[in-house]
Amino acid sequence: MWGRFRQLSVGDTSHRSNAATQRSKASHCTRPYTHTTGHDLGPRDSLQTVVYWRTHMYIRALLSVALFASSAFAGDLVTTDHYVQVTSKVPAIEGQTTQIYVREVVEPGTILRGGPREGRVVLFIHGAGTPAEVAFDAPYEGYSWMQHIARAGFDTFSMDMTGYGRSTRPTPMNDPCNLSAEQRAALTPGATLEPCEASYKSHLTTIESDWHDIDTVVEHLKQIRGVDKVSLVGWSLGGPRAGGYAARHPEKVQSLVLLAPSYQGDGGQRPNKVPADGPVMTKQSRSDFDAGWARQVGCADQLTPAVSDAVWGAMLESDPVGATWGTGVRRAPRVTSWGFGNATVAKMTTPVLLFAGVHDAQVPIGRVKALYRDLGSAQKVFVDLACSSHNAMWETNRRLMFDASVEWLTSGTVEGKSSGEIRLGY
To answer: Given this model, what pLDDT does residue 63 score?
Structure first.
């Protein structure tokens, strides 16, 4: 069988997870791509790659046979790893060349298509903790939002911000002393901690550096797909990231889909000190992950334990350094955030679809409704999703959200409506 395949990396692959490496080894073939050499900022961040073209014509021919010889291949998808160079605006490494990891999931026919893909390119933006390839391409059958959208004929991409997943992680993230004292103590419960002074004493990234990362990737996608605009899908802190970016670059954004966006309401002003003082990063252990989800379960059969296991496994694979701390943790940078309050959103004109899980205890449904009311966009829909938490894309009612997002990205409507409030799953 053809199956999903991932492009093979050439050179140092220490930045990749075992699972990703195994998927590459199992691949039947590759297609042309370009990687570039990044700045070495830590033990796992060096990347040596080259342009790899030799199988280009072979793949095009083979894909033609696979696509047209048998309908058995119609549902298969191609996954590609991109590393996009960015001149960083992260304060700790400003001006240095770093790498942003971008995952692409498309139907095989995309390889054969020529010409622009206007209106069919979608970029997924993650939240404060979970990297994008875990959040949106969960390694459990039927739970990948990216795959669902790709099977509807869209070219889907996700990106890890600086400090997350397989993107460059600045050196301060390798020092456990840069966690808060409480989180550092939790790495070894019951142990007596030796004095430990932080080597860096501010949040690691800012919403501004995130917007810069997004803009670099958007420009990359515009170039490789020949489009003027892309659509953005954001989750949690991905709301200020994607929404704040769209407010500043409406000429580059086709449409927005936001799940549990962290709306700042009457706030959103730039702080006096950027980055703010405080720990460099946060950590999440398996017990943190399970407890945070369990407190948001409000109905029977809301989630499947095997999905939770798969997501957590992928989380640790994305962070081999954090996996060695304590019983294994997922690290994420602290972000100084602003720029997504009512003064900003009132001026927005980009079409916006909002999802809120009724049991979300992290971004309560009322907060998302407030964003819906304050948005200046004429084309906006608010969806109240039953039996769902902050992690709705990994839960039973996910397909309702996936299908609604396909309709929105395709026609700008949900259940035929281009504006208004809708309840799904009740």
So the answer is: 37
